[in-house]
Design a protein that fits this description.
Number of helices: 9
Largest sheet: 6 strands, mixed
Number of strands: 10
Structural class: alpha/beta
Strand content: 15-25%
Low-confidence stretches: 1-7
Helix content: 25-40%
Order of helices and strands: EEEHEEHEHHHEHEHEEHH
């Protein structure tokens, strides 16, 4: 199984090369290759157990790989833990969002990285000002800065989680099922957030089971099956039906025939 990706100009922001991860003798990730460019949304798709979440956890520092290499701007880097990833500007927004429910948006954005005055007190004004500034870029309609995030809608909560990443100079954003459990209007709000991030030059790895999300947002799509690379394709080169056939049948895009697509319906 080999990649059929469309070449892009310049050096990738991230390159993951020949990554292997096993659990109890079972290969969860088996020789994966994938890369990400600045200002690109690169979707990782595949059925349950395909290995996409495990792969991306190695980049986030939440899972150690047995072998393989990660490069950033063409230079090898070591990521042993989430702190290493954050230091490199690699931020992860998990499906659970990991927000502190009982505090407001500014306190969540700066959670663990609080701004203090010269006397050592929390500088709540500075944190709110900076949160308003980053939110004005991401979601200008966001107004609920002084209420606990527990009272916010799903789309607004995503805004807070993304603002936390962007405020601390994320270059790479890993988004795990960002529209799961959201209604149509909130899902569209999150899609708008992702488009804004792309315009700012942030590279985004998007993990999603929603093929319409993938097709709407992604520049390229990587399909995985049983820990292996099936194919990497430009979104413009494939239809949603072809992507589904790649996921289900494990065929590269150029191997898919009309009968394969028809068998899905």
């Amino acid at each position: 199984m080999t990649s059929t990706s469309t070449p892009r100009d310049g050096t990738p922001l991230i390159t993951m090369r020949d990554v292997h991860v096993s659990f109890g003798g079972v290969k969860a990730v088996d020789g994966m290759h994938v890369d990400l460019y600045p200002g690109e949304v690169h979707a990782l798709v595949g059925g349950n157990g395909a290995g996409k979440t495990t792969l991306i956890k190695t980049l986030a520092g939440a899972q150690k790989m047995e072998s393989g290499q990660i490069l950033m701007d063409g230079e090898p880097i070591t990521i042993e833990n989430p702190r290493d990833a954050k230091h490199r500007g690699i931020e992860t927004i998990y499906q659970t969002l990991a927000l502190a429910e009982n505090i407001d948006a500014p306190a969540n954005v700066f959670l663990g990285r609080e701004v203090t005055t010269r006397l050592g007190n929390l500088d709540e004004g500075a944190m709110e000002d900076r949160t308003r500034a980053v939110m004005s870029r991401l979601n200008p309609h966001f107004k609920n800065f002084a209420v606990p995030v527990a009272s916010l809608s799903g789309g607004q909560r995503q805004s807070v989680a993304i603002a936390r990443a962007v405020e601390f100079n994320a270059r790479v954003l890993i988004m795990d099922e960002p529209t799961a459990a959201l209604g149509p209007a909130e899902s569209e709000q999150v899609r708008d957030l992702i488009r804004r991030l792309r315009e700012e030059g942030i590279g985004i790895f998007l993990i999603s089971h929603d093929i319409h999300d993938v097709y709407d947002l992604a520049d390229r799509i990587t399909v995985m099956l049983q820990g292996k690379l099936v194919s990497t394709v430009a979104k413009s080169d494939v239809t949603t039906d072809q992507v589904l056939a790649m996921i289900i049948l494990g065929k590269r895009s150029e191997e898919i025939e009309d009968s394969d697509v028809q068998s899905l319906h």
